[in-house]
Amino acid sequence: MNPELQGREFPPAEPYLVGREKVREFSRAVFATDPINLDPEAARAAGYDDVVAPPTFAVVVQEQTLAQLLAEPDAGIDFSRVVHGDQRFTFTRPIVAGDLLTATLSVPSVKTLGGHSIVTAETSITDASGAHVVTTISALVVRGEDD
Amino acid sequence: MPAAPAFDGLTVGDIVAEASFPLTRDSLVRYAGASGDFNPIHYRDDVARSVGLPGVLAHGMLTMGFAVQPVVDWAGDPGRVADYQVRFTRPVVVDPELGAVVSVVAKVGQLDAEARVARVDLTVKVGEETVLGKAQVRVSLG
Fold first, then answer.
1. Nearest Cβ partner of A59 from B61, B72, B82?
2. Tag placement on chain B: N or C end, fewer CB within 10 Å?
3. What's the rounded Cα separation, in Å, for the pair B28 and B120?
4. What interface predicted TM-score (ipTM) does this complex get?
5. Each residue of A113-124: pLDDT tens digit?
C-alpha cells in the first residue's frame, strides 16, 4: 500500500448514462417498492423526469472509480485483501433515469493502523450540466500481509 | 412530491419505521446482477470457505441498500435523503436453505431545528447481532 496515494486526484471516469430498466432492476434488488422507483408516471407525478434511483444506486457509478484506484500501477492495493469498512453518500439530489453522470475520484487520506491500511476514496458525481448530484465516500481496509 | 412527515411532530427516540427483510441466495444473485458486484464470496460456498469465511455473505452494499428503504418510505420521497452512512461491522451469512433475516429499526437520533433535518439512526440486526454500525440517515424535512 503506497502512502503517497494520499491527496491524489484522478481524471474523470467515462460518463455513465442511467437507464430506466437499470434503475428498476436495482430498485427490486434492494427491496425498494415505492412507485417513484419503478413507474415513470408515478415519478413524473412526484416532480421527477423519470424513475428515481434508490439512495445506494450511486455505488454502481462509483464502481468505475474504484476500478481506476485498483488499477493505479503504483497503488499497491491487493484486491483480495480489501474489506469495505465504511460507506457514505451525501446528496444534492437523487439520481434519476436519463442522467448522464461523471464520476471523479480523489483519495483524501491513506492511514496505517497496525498492519492494516485504510484508504478513503471519495467520488464526486456530477450531471451533464456539471452540477453536483452525490458524493460517495468509501473507507477501504487493506489487510496486512501477516493475517 | 408526497407530503413530508411533520418535523415539529418528531421527538428524539421516536421509532419512525420498522421492517424485516428475509434474504435468500436468490436475493444475493439478484443484487450481484443489479450492482455489478460479482465477487464469488456472495454466491459460492467453496470460494467463501477457501478465504476463511463461515459461508456465503450478503453484499454489505445490499444490506446498506435495503436498510434505508423503510426510512425512504417514511420520508415519502427519496429526494429528502440528504446523507446516508454506515459502518460494516459484521457480515451477514446467508444459509443456502434457511437464508437470513435482517431486521431494521429506524429511530430519530437527533433533530436540527434550524436546518429542519432529522437524523434517523438505524439498528440493523440478524437475530441479536448488529451487522451495521453508525448507520445514520439525514432526512431533510424543510
1. B61
2. C
3. 26
4. 0.96
5. 888 899 999 999
